[in-house]
Amino acid sequence: MILTALGWLAALGLLAIAVSSGWRGWREKARGPWIAAGLYAFAAVVLLGIDGILRPLSAGVLAFLVLAAVMAPALGEGRKIVPDNRWKGAALSARYALSSGPRYLARDAGSISRRATGRGEDEPAETEAIVSEHIVTRNIPPVMADPVLGVAPEPAALATAAPVPAPYAAMAAYIAGFVPEDDQALKMFMQANAAGELAIADAWHTFGDTCLNEVGLDPAYVAGLLEAGDGAAIQATLLAMVHKRFGVLYAAVQEWISAGRQLPHKAREFLTGEAA
Questions:
Q1: 105 vs 16, 36, 212, 261, CA distance in Å?
Q2: 116-154 burial, b for 16+ CB within 10 Å, e for fewer?
Q3: Residues 141, 195: Cα–Cα separation, whole Å
Q4: CA–CA separation, 33 vs 44, rounded Å?
């Protein structure tokens, strides 16, 4: 009796993982979670047959049908992972799916808990985790290194491909028209633009969340959006380093002024020789 009850609990746990994985596969239109759903459903059916809850013949037929349904997506993923040996790739895909199934259930349970307690929706980091899984299992390369996409377009072609949105036009005018009145104004300008680039980076990541969880786009596409966000963050770092160069170039001048000394008015024209 106790063994039967434990078998029931184990089977229910396996079916819960299968349902969670299947829901994720349907939502993301991805093969990996479907493979996990099929494998855990297969294990649940076998366990129910061993416990006598299902008749052996029924359990065998149902397990065969579930396993047969898993083979097609597993082989499809296998071809992507190991192009010259899809069976080996399918085995790797199945192994990864088995390890991913419990994580899918844990995330869904956490999401339900957060909604029930009013603590909000899924954490944004979940999107990055989902995309990372697909990058590994589907061998998705970075956008700029993807041979399927061909040669990247030239900047001149992109400049005329579509009208510049008003916020970008305003930002471009703001940057191009800024004239710093002193080093502090220049510093604040550069720091503010670095912070702006980080805001843009966060915006691309949020847009990626929307495309994955609300629109239901392929995680491979969302991976590119996250790359765009990372690129904006790199631009912020670049701006910080550009202004750091200002400090290196003018360190001697700033040290001179900090010591209470003064430069003559229009120092460039006034000084001669090496001092100039």
A1: 7, 11, 18, 68
A2: eeeeeebeeebbbebbebbbebbebeebeeeeeeeeeee
A3: 29
A4: 16
| C-alpha closest to that of 44 among 19, 23, 69 | 19
Residue position matching structure tokens 């396996």:
14
* DSSP sequence for 140-160: PPPGGG-GGG-SPPPHHHHHT
Nearest-angstrom CA–CA distance, 28 and 221: 11
Q: Which residues fall within 8 angstroms of residue 62, CB to CB, at 6 or more apart? A: 45, 54
By C-alpha distance, which of 261, 243, 265, 242 is closest to 253? Answer: 261
Cβ-based neighbour number of residue 102 at 10 Å: 16
d(CA 232, CA 202): 9
Alpha carbons 55 and 3: distance in angstroms, whole number: 17
DSSP for 213-229 reads: III---HHHHHHHHHHH
Residue with tokens 């072609």, as numbered in its chain: 157
Longest Cα–Cα distance in the chain = 101
Length of the chain: 276
Mean pLDDT by 10 residues, the chain (276 residues): 61 81 72 77 80 76 79 69 66 69 69 60 65 82 85 83 87 92 88 90 88 84 91 92 88 75 68 59
Tell me the Cα Rg of the chain: 29
CA atoms of 207 and 222, how far apart (whole Å) = 9
Phi, psi of 118 (to 5 degrees): 75, 25
